Amino acid sequence: MRLTDERWPHIVEGHPEMAGHLNDVLFAIASPDKILKDGEDELLAIALEYSAKLLVVVYRENETDGFIITAYFTKQADKLLKRIVLWQK
């Protein structure tokens, strides 16, 4: 899974609360609690109960590659967890 040098500053610019959480994002994508389907080609890696919030990492992958699109914290677990669960611990 790739997180490009361009993408991380873009994520932090759009979600300033993510500053200082690069390692958390990488851990969430490497060892998620759940993976949810989001639309046709995006997936959500979820780290549950991270500081009373969910850490969501949005990514895409295909047969040869995968890349992180964005990441954010949310308290809206009920809405998020209504999506199709593809995998969970």
Strand and helix order: HHEEEEHE
Q: Identify the overall geometry.
A: globular
Strand adjacency order, main sheet? 4-3-2-1-5
Mean of pLDDT: 93
Largest sheet: 5 strands, antiparallel
How far apart the termini lie comes to 19 Å
Level of helix content? 10-25%
Strand coverage percent: 35-45%
Number of strands: 5
Q: List the domain count as a whole number.
A: 1
Structural class: alpha+beta
Structure characterization notes:
It is globular and about 30 Å long. It has one domain (7-80). With 89 residues, it is an alpha+beta fold. The protein has helices at 7-14, 22-30, 77-80; strands at 34-38, 42-50, 53-61, 66-74, 85-88.
Write the layout of secondary structure elements.
Blueprint: H1 7-14, H2 22-30, E1 34-38, E2 42-50, E3 53-61, E4 66-74, H3 77-80, E5 85-88
Antiparallel strand pairs: 1-2, 1-5, 2-3, 3-4
Structural key phrases:
alpha+beta; five-stranded antiparallel beta sheet; 5 strands; globular
Please summarize what this structure is:
This protein is of the alpha+beta class. The protein is built from three helices and five strands.
